[in-house]
Amino acid sequence: MTLQDKMIGEHPSDGIFCNWTDCFDTTCTTTKRHRHIKENNVSREEAIQTTADWLITYHLSDAKKYMLENKRKILNKYDFQEYANSLHILPRTDKTKKGNFGEVILSQYLSQTSGVEV
Q1: Second label for 59, Cα 20 to 30 Å away, from 9, 29, 30, 89?
Q2: Distance (Å, rounded) from C-alpha 19 to C-alpha 87?
Q3: Confidence at residue 59, expressed as pLDDT on a 0 to 100 scale
Q4: CA 21 → CA 15, 47, 49, 91, 92, distances in Å?
Q5: pTM of the predicted model as reported, rounded to 2 decimal places
Q6: Which pLDDT score, from 0 to 100, does residue 35 have?
Q7: Where are the domains of the chain?
Q8: In terms of C-beta distances under 8 Å and separation of at least 24 residues, what long-range contacts does 14-22 make, across chains too?
């Protein structure tokens, strides 16, 4: 068992991270403990769909979806399409999109390896 396994848990032996990524725990030093995770391209399409679902779940709770649906109905009723389009629910800047994507992937990975719900 590696130090990384002790810290965050073993790389998943089934599921999306097992199918989509390969893992290599690097040699630890007193200041660095790294786990190298690399896409293996085997399950790319499954990974794309799964991460898309995670991103939607991460950004839109059921309560927020319900609220947005009600707003959409009201705005459509009064023909406020331009205003509706200006309501930016998901991130728009490239840097924010990439940061949120990494955060969601890491959160899901840590949840699966450590059993902690993030």
Answers
A1: 9
A2: 37
A3: 80
A4: 10, 10, 15, 26, 28
A5: 0.74
A6: 94
A7: 3-113
A8: 15/112, 16/43, 16/46, 16/47, 16/50, 17/108, 17/109, 17/112, 17/113, 19/43, 19/46, 19/47, 20/44, 20/46, 20/47
55-65, pLDDT tens digit by residue? 888 888 888 88
Residue range 70-93, pLDDT digits in tens: 887 888 787 777 777 777 767 788
d(CA 25, CA 15): 19
Q: What are the structure tokens assigned to 98, written together?
A: 């990439």
Closest C-alpha to 17, from 45, 36, 37, 3: 37
DSSP calls for the chain: --HHHHHH-PPPSSSHHHHHEEEEEPPP-SS---EEEEE-STTHHHHHHHHHHHHHHHH--HHHHHHHHHHHHHHHHTT-HHHHHH---S--SHHHHHHHHHHHHHHHHHHHHH----
